[in-house]
Structures are given as structure tokens and as C-alpha cells.
Amino acid sequence: MSAILGSGEHRYRVVDNWAKLPDGWQLTDVASVAVDSKDRVYVFNRGAHPMVVFDRDGNFLRSWGERLFSRAHGLHIDADDNLYCTDDGDHTVRKCTTDGKVLLTIGVPEKPAPFMSGDPFHRCTHTALSPKGEIYVSDGYGNARIHKFTPDGKLIKSWGAPGTDPGQFNIVHNIVADADGWVYVADRENHRVQVFDGDGKYETQWNNLHRPCALCCCGGIKNPTFVIGELGPAMPVNRKVPNLGPRLSIVDARGKRIARLSGEDGPGLASGKFLAPHGIALDSRGDMYVGEVGVTDWKTNFPDEDMPEVVRTTRCLQKLERVADVSRHRRISSDTPRDECPFSTR
């Protein structure tokens, strides 16, 4: 029986076995997910077919990106359905059409900047767009920087350094921007989300998180809401400690938690559990798609267990269907204006 997570207006039913892949295909790790204006779901993954596209019912539509991407990591979609694909394997960001035509490449494929030099890129992780279309890139594994580019890919400025102080990072893993231009950064191993203005001035930080990994800004223009994917423990000494994730947290624009989904009893394959939430997107109805890197994290989570084949096929992608609280809320439908939908990403 499918699990239901959350409470009140933040209730979700897990849609088990949602993705219908062609015979013999594997997604392996799903690094990130995006949803376009027609509710088509783009799954940026580390299998043989890096971009796999489904309709909202999980039916396979097409794939692309073969021989283009080295290692999928981040995916962002803009209001015109252009996809920004961050490849930490070859240190690039590529802006693509929904059928895979490359419109812009930032970075030089397979030529990383020196480790911790501050120059773009050394294993970049994700992108976000300012209200003016400027491109923010989190450069997080071999750097500790945020870079800001013009819409056509010219570097404007960079900020950040290794460390734990405000404005410093310890694996800058994800980034989003809201309609007012605020920039939110998942500072993963510092266990926080940092908030900056559009020019990189530190404003505040959100704490009480555990290894924030995925970050999704949603909830319309006036009152944005954020979904944060948190990883579980990475050390043997606290691997089995409860209440550390993996899980999803929903917070308001001040970082106050308003809901939490799963994570009390650690990772797992059962309905309602997570392995390693790494990318999150929502469709026009408020349904949530969660990409997980369960293959990469399997031995961290389960060092003494063989990995089931389902982890390589479809278990690294989950759909959570929003459940209406009919006694208090009207159901969100595809006819609801995007800026009124409480969990619209567009």
C-alpha cells in the first residue's frame, strides 16, 4: 500500500513504480529533475541515456544527451522551457532546448579550473536564474564559489570561499533564486542554506538542517515556499541515529519549517522512505518529483548489504502526488494560475 507523507495541506501520496522505462533501461542515479510548461518531466541521470523524458503519468516519451554529458548533476528549467544542464564530470553548464539542441555552453569541457582557485569551474553543481535572466552557478566540489553570468554566458562576478563563516561554503551543492532576486544556496556540509542578495551580499542563513542537498523554490511569486532534500548521515558512527534523514523539509521564505516528509528511521526502499534526495521539481498540480543518488550512496547507507537491482532501474526517481485536504482547501488543478498555485515552480 502506498504511503502518505506529511500533514494538512502538505500531504503527499507516494506513487509507487511511477516511471515506465523501456525494457532493459536503467536510470541509475537521478541527479536532478525538471518539469516543463506541459508537465513533461525531464530526468537528468547517470545512466546510458542522460536525459529521459516522461509525461506526468510516467509514460516514456524520449531520451537524449547520449555522448553529450559526462556526469549529470544539476538541472534547471526557465519560463521558456530551456534547460540548464550542469555536468560536474566535464565542468560545464549547457543551456539546451527540450529536444536536446545546445544553445549555450559555459565552461570548457574536460578542462577544470585549478582546485579551490575560485575560477569557474571545478565540478560545478547547479544553476539558477535571476529575474533578469542572469545565470548563477554553484561551483561546489572543487571550488567553494558562486559565479554570476550574463544571459549569454559572460562572467560578471564570483563570491565565496572555503570555510564555515557567513559567505563561506563547505560543498556548495545547490542554488535557487526567487522572483525578488534573492539567492538561496545549499551549503551542504555546513548543514545550512545561506541567503544572499543578487550581488552576493550575505543576508541570513537557515539552520536546523542535515546535509541539505536538493533545493526547490516554489509557491508562487508573493510567498515563495522551499522544498529541501536532506541527506542522511555519512559517517559510520552516526549511520543508524534516528531523525537525521534522508528526508524532505518544506520551509517558508524565512526558513521556518512548515512540514517534514519522512526521515525519522533512516533510509530505505519501502514506500515513503528515501535513499538520497538530490533533485526536486514540482508540476502544475503541486505533485513532486524527487531524484535520488541511491546508487552512489548505497554503501554509505547499507555497507553490509548488496544493492537490489531496482535501485539502478527506477527506485532513484519517486513521484509524490499532492493529496487535497477537501475540508479546508480546494484542490489545485491544471487550470489554477501559476502564480496562485501554492506549489507551482513556474
Task: Write a structural description.
With 346 residues, the chain is mainly beta. Helices cover 4% and strands 40% of the residues. The chain has helices at 294-301, 309-313; strands spanning 4-7, 10-15, 30-35, 41-45, 51-54, 60-64, 72-77, 83-87, 92-96, 102-106, 124-129, 135-139, 145-149, 155-159, 161-162, 168-169, 172-177, 183-187, 192-196, 202-206, 212-218, 225-230, 247-251, 257-261, 277-282, 288-292, 317-322. A 5-stranded antiparallel sheet has the order 1-2-27-26-25, with no helix packed on it. The protein has a 4-stranded antiparallel sheet with strand order 3-4-5-6, with no helix packed on it. It has a 4-stranded antiparallel sheet with strand order 7-8-9-10, with no helix packed on it. Strand 21 (212-218) and strand 22 form a beta hairpin.
Keyword list:
single chain, 346 residues, Neuraminidase, 4-stranded antiparallel beta sheet, 27 strands, 4% helix, 40% strand, globular
Determine the N-to-C terminus distance: 32 Å
Mean pLDDT score = 93
Helix content: under 10%
What is the CATH domain class?
A: Mainly Beta
| Strand arrangement in the largest pleated sheet | 1-2-27-26-25
What is the H-and-E element order?
EEEEEEEEEEEEEEEEEEEEEEEEEEHHE
Count of helical regions: 2
Shape by Cα distribution: globular
Q: Can you count the beta strands?
A: 27
